[in-house]
Design goal:
With 612 residues, this protein is an alpha+beta fold. The chain folds into 3 domains: 2-209, no CATH class; 239-361, no CATH class; 432-600, no CATH class. α21 (480-487) packs across α22 and α24 (515-521) packs antiparallel against α25.
Length: 612
């Protein structure tokens, strides 16, 4: 969504443009269409020669990021749904092979429209209908949460300031979503009501990473081409990211997984009519302006954009420039020493096609598309083998424990998206100074939730010689997680709501004291924070059957909170903890409610929206 804001801001400045290129087929009026052009031939052309790679790609979530809304593509396991939002009724019905929405519309009264496209893969699925104006799409204002098996309002899916406003976001898909959810998307926007949008292929397909394949197919179709290639007499006219230098290889991923805007007006017009000019293997910087928190300051492209969107940086970055939202992993990699001074690339850990010798089921591989064992310390030991023989000496944690896993300390869950915390892809080491400067949880206190910043600073100084910063009395005596949960901004509260449900943190910190904090978050002003808190609360003893709806009325949410507190009180003294004073419990195991309420009254209610 960060790129979405950039795109829409720039388009508003650009004004009407001339739509170029060949005409799209007329038989699919009302939605964007797949048109093969510019040397693109589609993933189906790859299947005959590369069946195994095609099969693993087909099982990936990249493929399903955008789909025509056929019965096979829909994640909805029902024939109909009647949904309520802000006093209005929205009805979905299956009619034959199609899903239809009967709903109120902000400008057209009540309408009935066919759902024509979906976006989203394994977390959420969003649904788009024809605006009735050329190929311009609008958004059905509910999202299906696949893992939870329920409908949620689209405005309650992202971490945004609370608002009763409902929008169908006309043209958003055409002007923004297609950038990273399709292969060679061309908005072809003449005016805000005239969009002849085309793509080479819905979803992220073979040619998004390997480049257009027409020349490759042509050459390899000639007799003797395969033998000539195997003998070294013929080079493939296609890009294999695994054979590129580490920077160009990572840029293939960075074309989507980064924070960027257009290099100039010419590149914007190029994209509007013909799609991005970048092709895998080229230098991404030649056609994009990659936004880096510090390095981009003063650049004309950045200054012009910030003039239109002055709060954009805070929606993507922490105040020291570390990426705060997921989906921008390349931007995090760029700031990592392992990339800058070494040869680390995205493919150091990830593999975009499942290896034949990989014993994992396709579904397991597809979750993160990691190479085998890259979810273990082997990911770091492949470049830092010396640490293997002295792991406990380095980590000061027992081997095999979460604290001895490299990525828990150097890639903690400090990014946010999809109603959960996600690992940072800027590799760094935890410091209390960074937490004080930015408010970002450090790895130590995100796991040891019952410990103070002083405890962390003392151990980092003792173990690694990290200078101990000056701390306030509160920071010396109250657990960092408590301060972030009660006093933090919406993004900090969301990370803490997730961390309070993270199993390694519950083991390290004990979980009996956590309920009052999660219960308080059930009434948080931000829908996303309430959702995450409820999910974590359900994992605590006594709460597995607790019922609560995070988008219910404030009155019913308040009633649910009181019921949750009663459940917690009935659990006896399970809330005792060895470090009770830091998490605001007295010696008898009672919550120090006055201190709790005082900290809560200092909550940072600054209106924060994270550009997921």
């Amino acid at each position: 969504m960060g790129t979405i804001r950039i795109t829409l801001a720039l388009l508003s400045l650009l004004g009407p443009t001339t739509v170029l290129g060949r005409e799209a087929p007329v038989q699919e009026q009302g939605r964007p269409v797949q048109v093969l052009d510019y040397g693109y031939v589609s993933s189906e052309e790859c299947r005959s020669c590369h069946p195994q790679n095609h099969a693993s790609w087909h099982a990936s979530y990249h493929r399903t990021m955008t789909q025509v809304a056929t019965p096979e593509a829909l994640a909805i396991p029902i024939e109909k749904a009647d949904l309520k939002l802000e006093g209005q009724t929205y009805r979905l019905r299956r009619e034959g092979d199609w899903l239809w929405a009967d709903m109120p519309h902000p400008s057209m009264g009540r309408i009935k429209r066919r759902i024509v496209l979906t976006t989203g893969s394994h977390h959420f699925q969003m649904y788009w209908f024809s605006s009735g104006s050329t190929r311009k799409l609008e958004l059905f204002p509910f999202v299906y949460a696949i893992q939870e098996g329920r409908w949620i309002p689209e405005k309650s899916t992202f971490l945004m300031p609370p608002s009763p406003r409902i929008s169908t976001q006309p043209g958003r898909w055409n002007q923004a979503c297609l950038q990273c959810h399709t292969t060679l998307g061309r908005p072809r926007v003449a005016t805000q009501d005239n969009m002849d949008t085309q793509v080479a292929e819905f979803g992220i397909a073979c040619e998004a990473c390997h480049g257009p394949g027409a020349r490759h197919v042509q050459v390899m179709s000639r007799p003797g081409s395969l033998e000539a290639y195997r003998s070294g007499k013929l080079e493939l006219d296609i890009v294999n990211p695994a054979k590129l230098p580490h920077d160009r290889s990572s840029q293939v991923c960075g074309q989507c997984h980064s924070v960027f805007t257009f290099g100039d007006r010419q590149e914007l017009v190029q994209w509007l009519n013909h799609g991005f000019s970048y092709r895998p293997g080229q230098d991404l910087n030649a056609s994009r302006f990659l936004i880096r928190y510090q390095q981009s300051r003063g650049a004309p492209q950045m200054e012009a954009f910030l003039k239109a969107q002055p709060r954009f940086l805070e929606s993507v970055f922490w105040s020291d420039g570390m990426v705060r939202t997921a989906g921008r992993e390349y931007s995090g990699l760029l700031e990592s020493g392992c990339y800058q001074m070494g040869q680390m690339s995205c493919l150091s850990c990830h593999r975009l096609h499942k290896a034949p010798e990989d014993p994992r089921p396709l579904k397991s591989w597809a979750n993160d598309q990691l190479q085998p064992r890259m979810d273990t310390n082997q990911a770091c030991l492949q470049c830092h083998p010396a640490f293997e023989s002295r792991l406990e000496e380095h980590t000061h944690h027992r081997p095999g424990s979460p604290g001895s896993e490299c990525y828990n300390c150097h890639m903690p869950h400090t990014s946010y998206a999809l109603l959960k915390a996600i690992r940072s892809h800027q590799i760094n080491s935890p410091t209390v100074a960074a937490s004080l400067k930015t408010g970002r949880p450090n790895a130590c206190n995100q796991c040891h939730l019952d410990k103070t910043l002083a405890w962390t600073a003392q151990n980092l100084q003792k173990w690694y010689g990290v200078p101990k910063p000056k701390l306030s009395r509160e920071q010396e005596t109250v657990a960092a997680s408590v301060l972030w949960t009660l006093k933090g901004d919406a993004g900090q509260r969301a990370l803490m709501a997730w961390s309070l449900g993270w199993e390694p943190a519950k083991v390290a910190s004990g979980s009996g004291w956590m309920a009052p904090y999660l219960v308080q978050l059930l009434e948080d002003p931000y829908d996303a924070v309430r959702f995450i808190a409820y999910r974590s609360l359900r994992q605590l003893p006594g709460f597995s059957d607790f019922q609560y709806d995070y988008v219910d009325s404030p009155q019913r949410r308040a009633q649910a909170r009181l019921k949750a507190l009663e459940i917690w009180r009935r659990t006896g003294r399970q809330h005792r903890t060895a470090n009770g004073s830091a998490v605001l419990f007295d010696g008898r195991g009672n919550l120090r409610q006055k201190v709790f309420d005082r900290l809560l009254s200092q909550r940072n209610d600054y209106p924060l929206g994270l550009a997921e």
